[in-house]
Amino acid sequence: MFTILSKAERLEALVRYDTECRRLVGLENAARLRFGRVCLALRKSRLEGSPLEELGFSSFATFCHVRFGIGERTALRSIELYQACERFAHLKAAFMQRKLEQEKVLVLFAYLKRFPELEEVMVELAGRMTLLRISGQAGELRFERAGEVLLGEIRVVSVAPG
Fold first, then answer.
1. Which one of 58, 80, 94, 98 is separated from 23 by 20 to 30 angstroms, measured CA to CA?
2. Per-residue pLDDT at 87
3. Distance between alpha carbon 133 and the CA centroid of its chain, in Å?
4. Strands 148-150 and 143-145
5. pLDDT classification of 156: cutoffs 50, 70, 90
């Protein structure tokens, strides 16, 4: 009933499982962005004269709860993720390559809205930092550029090379 696998066979199986998990996470990230795009379209339509009401839903929140089984806030976060990835190419690439998870993308998006020119640098730094370290206890960014100190929503205390 149970076969005993050799060490090489177990390793090969683990590599296959790891590859499949990475593929599925990539599909999940792409699906999150598509879901955000759909939620945005539904939310916009709500503001323009609601087809949701024609479907029998009193609000976008009700629609999200009944149709998707999620709260409105979760749908709004999906919209924000989609908007972040549409606006910032490096952010989207890092998210799709699984270098940044959703929470890091959202934290960076809040900062990059004010300082879009720092996108490439901040995406690279965020890929090497924990979410807690990016968010910072005081919620401040101390990032020096050409002698000026920028304050934002992220704190970069120090970054080790490599």
1. 80
2. 96
3. 17
4. antiparallel
5. very low
Q: At what angle do helices 102-112 and 72-87 cross, to 10 degrees?
A: 60
Alpha carbon 101 to its chain centroid, in Å, reads 5
| Rounded-to-integer distance, Cα 43 and Cα 98, Å | 28
| Per-residue pLDDT at 88 | 96
Q: What is the pLDDT of residue 66?
A: 92
Distances (CA, A) of 46 to 39, 58, 61: 10, 10, 11
Q: What is the pTM of this model?
A: 0.70
Q: Is the pLDDT higher at 145 or at 23?
A: 23
Q: What is the largest CA-CA distance in the chain?
A: 69
Q: What is the distance, to the nearest Å, from the Cα of residue 42 to the centroid of all Cα atoms in its chain?
A: 20
Q: How far is CA 94 from each of CA 31, 117, 125, rounded to the nearest angstrom?
A: 15, 17, 11
Calculate the CA 123 to chain-centre distance: 12
Residue 96, phi-psi category: left (phi > 0), alpha (psi -120 to 50), beta (remainder): alpha
